[in-house]
Write the structure tokens for this entry.
Amino acid sequence: MMLLVEARAQAVQTSAPGPLSDGTCRLAGMPRFEDEDLSDAEFRECDLSRARFVGVVMQDAVIDGLVTNLVVNGVEVTSYVEAELDRRHPVRVLIRSASPADLVSAASRLRACWDATVSRLRSMPTGSEHERVGGEWSAVETMRHLVFVHDSWFRRCCLGSTALFTGLGLASGFVPDQESQGLDPSAAPSLDEVLAVRSAQAAELADWLSGVTPAELASPAPVPDGPGWPPYARGRTVLECVHVVLNEEWEHHGFCVRDLAVLEG
């Protein structure tokens, strides 16, 4: 994400600082839109932190992403959204837990969700597993990304592994030096090939979680020295890295289910 933000920041044309209507100062490089029609606009993979929407008309808008401290007409609404998501999806509470037992339960529930989704996918027309919706990853690509997440955030950060990543794993475009880390840019695996890797990884995670202690979770992540993804994991705890793995499983499952619903019409 930081690489994306830096690249976008370099692309933004700078402008002179100036006072806003409320007396605050406008920062250099801060884009400003005034009296413009941005209806039906799409902002994809953008950093909108500290953005201000003043006197705007926003109807039927959809926001999907990492949102914190969002204030709408003077009311901070993020806490309400998070509480509702926890009510709808209790596994989210387990994912954030520091208890090994809760983490075991979270991993098991997430695996059950994916198993049900794979069964649903197999009942759909052949090729559905490779279809993209709205430019998002296909179901197979989504699961390939989770193979990469397991290799990077679990094996490398929690186990201290220096092994190359699984070749069929799929990283986001901003991850540098992908081939040198073991990823194969020409990989085009079948659903069954990806599922075989996913099954082995799920068993590895479940076995590790069943024996890990709270003290081990609270310890610094044993991230190996040298280059490798993620570069910003060093200094985090093992628990924080586990949380990333489980949260990625939950988030991307939601994306996959959303897109399958579109494909089913």
User: Anything to note?
Assistant: Helices lie at 2-11, 78-88, 91-95, 100-122, 139-156, 191-209, 214-218, 238-264. The beta strands are 18-19, 25-26, 71-72, 75-76. Confidence is low (pLDDT under 50) at residues 1-25. The longest strand covers residues 18-19.
